[in-house]
Design goal:
The complex is a heterodimer of chains A (171) and B (149). Chain A has 171 residues and is α+β, with helices and mostly antiparallel strands. Chain A has 3 helices and 8 strands, in the order ββαββββαβαβ. Chain B is globular, with a radius of gyration of 14 Å. The chains are: A alpha+beta (171), B alpha+beta (149).
């Protein structure tokens, strides 16, 4: 399994990709690494931070893997794409590039993770509409407490730089 | 009708309390005012900003709705895990007062819509709140205060 390193505010967390389940999504994400940017906290999906993919790193991927309905768990890392018309209000917290269409890595760091909240909301459940793609492509091996705390701090203190790189161990 | 002033960071707005349809909740709220607390952004409801209240007695259900809209001033018991990273011991929900500042919002429990007491409507300054709340999401949250205008 390929591994990813997440660095946030001096803390680190390692995730394993689900190459065996969603190989195309894993390849696509792997090929745009490293990615970095200012992570923002979710306002819908509970304990989740988002890293928007911008410029040449934007990914527009089709759905892959088993349908997911209401089962997002702490530690899950999801490739997420949202169609431009999905959100009706202004997205002033995001830079102008992401106020309509959105392509991001969604990082679920704690309870209650977001999928459960979306389970009764068809527009947010992914496969039932063309409004979004949400593919679980990696999971943290464990979530260090300091890393989760940094994620929570984004909610209260504002954006923090997040860097995601390939973790390539010497053999 | 009682008019209240809401400030969030540098933004200022005014709301009319709905004393006709929510007489008990608005009476209770007026006795609580003025309040100033650390503002928080919801992470489960869309565009909602709220503060945690300390109230020793239970606030009754009154003038409730699950169809919150922009400008609603609402009081309800929020599942504690949406406020704190872990369930606090012996506490499963926390009393909050908040407002909706933008579309794409709906107050939720852990798995379904959550009914909230509608205690007032913001009549002036919603645009200022709708700019200040996203700014705070990016730069960090400050205080929110509510007082009789």
């Amino acid at each position: 399994m390929r591994q990813l390193l997440f660095e946030l505010g001096g803390t680190r967390a390692v995730a394993e990709m689900h190459d065996d389940v969603v190989p195309k999504t894993c390849d696509a994400v792997w090929n745009v690494l490293p990615v970095e940017g200012m992570a923002i906290h979710a306002n819908w999906s509970s304990r989740e931070i988002m890293l928007h993919l911008h410029g040449e790193k934007i990914l527009r991927l089709p759905p892959e893997g088993p349908a997911r309905r209401g089962t997002t768990a702490p530690g899950d890392i999801v490739y997420f794409w949202r169609s431009p018309q999905m959100s009706r209000g202004k997205q002033l917290a995001y830079s102008s590039e992401f106020q309509r269409e959105l392509s991001e890595l969604a990082i679920f760091y704690g309870d209650p993770a977001g999928g459960g909240l979306a389970a009764d909301d068809p527009a947010r459940s992914g496969r039932d509409s063309n409004l979004q793609v949400a593919t679980l492509f990696a999971t943290f091996i464990d979530i260090p407490k300091e890393f989760a705390q940094k994620c929570e701090e984004i909610r209260h203190n504002g954006l923090q730089r997040l860097v995601v790189t390939r973790l390539e161990r010497s053999r | 009708m009682t008019r209240v002033k809401i400030t969030l960071g540098s933004a200022e707005a005014f709301a009319q309390l709905d004393e006709k349809d929510a007489p008990k909740a608005t009476k209770w709220l007026k006795e609580m005012l003025p309040i100033e607390r650390q503002a928080m952004h919801s992470m489960e409801n869309g565009r909602e900003v709220y503060v945690v209240l300390d109230a020793p007695h239970h606030v009754e259900e009154e003038n409730q709705t699950i169809y919150q809209t922009v400008g609603d001033l609402i009081v309800y018991y929020k599942p504690a895990i949406f406020v704190k990273p872990e369930w606090p011991r012996h506490i499963r929900d926390i009393l909050v007062i908040g407002f909706i500042y933008e579309r794409d919002s709906a107050i939720r429990s852990l798995s379904a819509p959550l009914a909230t007491n509608l205690v007032g409507k913001i009549t002036e300054g919603i645009d200022a709140l709708a700019r200040e709340a996203p700014r705070m999401r990016r730069e960090g949250f400050g205080k929110m205060s509510i007082s009789v205008a």
